[in-house]
Automatic annotation (TrEMBL):
Belongs to the neurexin family. NCBIfam families: GGGWT_bact. Residues 208-372, 440-626 form the Laminin G domain. Residues 373-411 form the EGF-like domain. The lineage of its organism: Eukaryota, Metazoa, Chordata, Craniata, Vertebrata. Residues 1-51 form the Fibrinogen C-terminal domain. It is a single-pass type I membrane protein. Disulfide bonds join 345-372. Pfam families: Laminin_G_2. This is CNTP2 protein. GO terms for biological process: cell adhesion. GO terms for cellular component: membrane.
Length: 737
């Protein structure tokens, strides 16, 4: 049964981030799983399959043979790659020909000197950037070739290096399996060929779906051919408590899958030995309008049914008797033969590795609609840190615009490195707005509706960011106002964190001091400050939150906020003496995912958004995640992540090119060796010390020597073994991946 997902799209919907994954494009069909790189971008999922041909492979120059054949070996079979390209919405492969006196397609009229071989061993005479049947290169289509008489740069036959390159994107012809280069037999003819990996985007099968609107509606397909083995999988989503998913009948034989009750899925069939039924009972209701996955298999030995991650139910076949499932009727999906059909949505229905096109059939069937809605109910939880789930026709995406993060799931910190003297100011009102609508509601309010814009005062703030620095004192963040009110987060000369609130009503600003921790130690630290009226809650790193209260005389409104500063405070008018002192020469270090209520000033500066007009920067802001706190980086390393399979188990000859995760294993081995060495030394020491102990007179002096040698032995290992530090780095890196 399927231990691997069917595609990269499926991994994205398990909340997985970009990595190498095993996929099995035809379920339990004959193809078997393959390892691909899944690149999860904000709105698309790319599947990449690599080959072993080096970029810029040289051909010709020395040899005088007529044709030079370059063979590409992929980390997957041609059938496996075909399964990916056929279900993808779009595929592309980069191809490039650099030439010196070596013609390519021999345009405008001649026979091509060079061609490439694609799927099913077909030869193709078009080049990257062009399309099937068009004997031109990209420059010929764009009409910008070096010599306009020819349709390829190389066809002009110059003595200088020229290049023709572009994307091949007719997916029915991909992947490129060979490039045959012809024009190399003259003195001085040289060429270099580059072919990129195959990249495909989208998975039409994964989202191919239909909504059943009435309990009598159904789709019909040709008879299911599952005589000796049947493998059926699909996703369903419903709020109804029962209904038939699908059924196919024979004379007496049949096969059927149905939702029997809100908590039961049933798989029943008869191959001539009497009906057999397997039922999976779920502890939670299945009619919760969330996606659930069903996988039913039957072969001559046994039958099984699995729903989601619930335990697999298995039934052995009788040792004697019939084994062939003989069906004649059409395959009905939904209501069959007057039974109460399924109400809701069925998606990605695969029968023996073939995805049924529910969508096409639904377009011409009354009572059934193509496609499904409501993906966010199932997948919205993957949009983290306040990211909003956005419904799409096929799937969903996360909108991170109101957060300080980006990436497909809003979990990637947006941060920057600040050099000394550099600063960033975020003005709460954009230039040209009047004081009246100074603080527009979206900018400053939290999501709460009770804060209205005209009163321009804040009763509550929410502030969070992470930072790392080795220099103190410094001001990490400062919020100024048109009144004496301010809020500051700083590191004092001792390296301790201090939060200062000045809201009026007190002689001195109210300060929260965290004395016992050095924050200027170069490590990333996270700070979360929430104020609601008089109550302030501070959370630092992973320590429990602590509560503070503003003095009874203090005002509880932050009046007329004006701007937020990072790096340095450059504000006109009177400014708190300490803050002025700490703010020169300025902050050096990293700040990441800064968020003040609904404002993300660093993100506004680094990503062009409609808030970017509020930002003013002095100096050069360099994007970096050096201040990213490990708390926001998933700590699952390649070694512990059950979805991340080790490359050693992938019997590919091109580990180097396609799969780069051998490092962790090396460092683990080195670490192991070092551990053994240290252990041996310690054992020897214990033995020596005990030996000394027997000679009591010499005990004291020798113990000191023993300890000394122990220290130096460890130090010696670290000094002599360059891999020792590397091991530490590696494991640290692995944790931060």
């Amino acid at each position: 049964s399927a231990i691997y997902e069917l595609s990269c799209e499926a991994y994205k919907h398990l909340g997985k981030t970009s990595n190498y994954y095993w996929i099995d494009p035809d379920g339990s069909g004959t193809l078997g799983p393959l390892k691909v790189y899944c690149n999860m971008t904000e709105d698309k999922v790319w599947t990449t399959v690599y080959h072993d041909l080096q970029m810029q492979t040289s051909v010709g120059g020395s040899s005088v043979e007529k044709l030079s054949v370059l063979q590409l070996n992929y980390s997957a079979t041609m059938d496996q790659i075909s399964a990916i390209t056929s279900s993808a919405e779009y595929c592309e492969q980069f191809i490039s020909y650099s030439c010196k006196m070596s013609r390519l397609l021999n345009t405008p009229e001649g026979n091509p000197y060079t061609w490439w071989v694609g799927k099913a061993n077909e030869k193709h005479y078009y080049w990257g950037g062009s399309g099937p049947g068009i004997q031109k290169c990209a420059c010929g289509i764009e009409r910008n070739c070096t010599d306009p008489k020819y349709y390829c740069n190389c066809d002009a036959d110059y003595k200088q290096w020229r290049k023709d390159s572009g994307m091949l994107s007719y997916k029915e012809h991909l992947p490129v399996s060979q490039v045959v280069v012809g024009d190399l037999d003259r003195p001085g003819s040289e060429a270099k060929v580059s072919v990129g990996p195959v990249r495909c985007q989208g998975d039409r099968n994964y989202w191919n779906s239909a909504s059943f609107v009435t309990s009598s509606s159904y789709l019909h397909f040709s008879t299911f051919q599952g005589e000796t083995s049947a493998d059926i999988s699909f996703y369903f989503k419903t709020s109804a408590s029962d209904g038939v998913f699908l059924e196919n009948l024979g004379n007496t034989d049949f096969i059927k899958l149905e939702l029997k009750s809100a908590t039961e899925v049933s798989f029943s069939f008869d191959v001539g030995n009497g009906p057999v039924e397997i039922v999976v009972r779920s502890p939670n209701p299945l009619n919760d309008d969330q996606w659930h996955r069903v996988n039913a298999e039957r072969n001559v030995k046994q039958a099984s049914l699995q729903v989601d991650q619930l335990p697999l139910e298995v039934r052995k076949a009788p040792t004697e008797g019939h084994t062939r499932l003989e069906l004649y009727s059409q395959l009905y999906v939904g209501a069959a033969g007057g039974q109460r059909g399924f109400l809701g949505c069925i998606r990605s229905l695969r029968m023996n590795g073939v995805t049924l096109d529910l969508e096409e059939r639904a377009k011409v069937t009354p009572g059934v609609k193509p496609g499904c809605s409501g993906h966010c109910t199932s997948y919205g939880m993957y949009c983290a840190n306040g990211g909003k789930c956005v419904e799409k026709y096929n799937g969903y995406s996360c909108d991170c615009s109101k957060t300080a993060y980006d990436g497909p799931f809003c979990i990637k910190d947006v941060g920057a490195f600040f050099e000394e003297g550099m600063w960033l100011r975020y003005n709460f009102h954009s230039p040209g707005t009047s004081m009246k609508d100074l603080v527009s509601r979206t900018l400053l309010s939290s999501a709460d509706a009770e804060i209205t814009a005209p009163d321009l005062n804040l009763n509550k703030e929410e502030l969070s960011f992470s930072f790392s620095t080795t220099k103190s004192p410094c001001v990490l963040l400062y919020v100024s106002s048109y009144t004496p009110d301010f809020l500051a987060v700083l590191v004092n000369p001792k390296g301790n964190l201090q939060i200062r609130y000045n809201l009026g009503g007190t002689k001195e600003p109210y300060s929260i001091d965290i004395d016992h921790r050095n924050m200027a130690n170069g490590q990333p630290h996270t700070v979360n400050v929430t104020r609601n009226g008089r109550d302030i809650v501070l959370q630092l790193d992973h320590y429990p939150p602590t509560s503070y209260s503003l003095p009874a005389t203090s005002d509880i409104q932050f009046n007329s906020p004006k701007a937020l500063f990072l790096g340095k405070v450059i504000e006109t008018g009177k400014i708190d003496q300490d803050i002025y002192k700490y703010s020169t020469p300025g902050f050096t270090g990293c700040l990441s995912r800064v968020q003040f209520n609904q404002i993300a000033p660093l993100k506004a500066a680094l990503r062009p958004t409609n808030a970017s007009s509020h930002v003013h920067i002095q100096g050069e802001l360099v994007e970096s995640n050096c201040g990213a706190s490990p708390l926001t980086i998933p700590p699952m390393s390649a070694a512990t992540d059950p979805w991340h399979l080790d490359s050693a188990s992938a019997g590919f000859p091109y580990n180097g090119q396609a799969i780069g995760d051998g490092v962790n294993r090396n460092s683990a081995i080195i670490g192991g060796v070092i551990a053994v060495v240290i252990f041996t030394i310690l054992c020897t020491l214990v033995f020596l010390i005990r030996y000394m102990f027997r000679h009591k007179g010499t005990y004291h002096t020798n113990e000191a020597k023993g300890a000394e040698s122990a220290e130096s032995a460890d130090a010696a290992i670290m000094n002599n073994d360059p891999n020792f530090t590397e091991t530490i780095d590696e494991s640290k890196k692995e944790w931060l991946i």
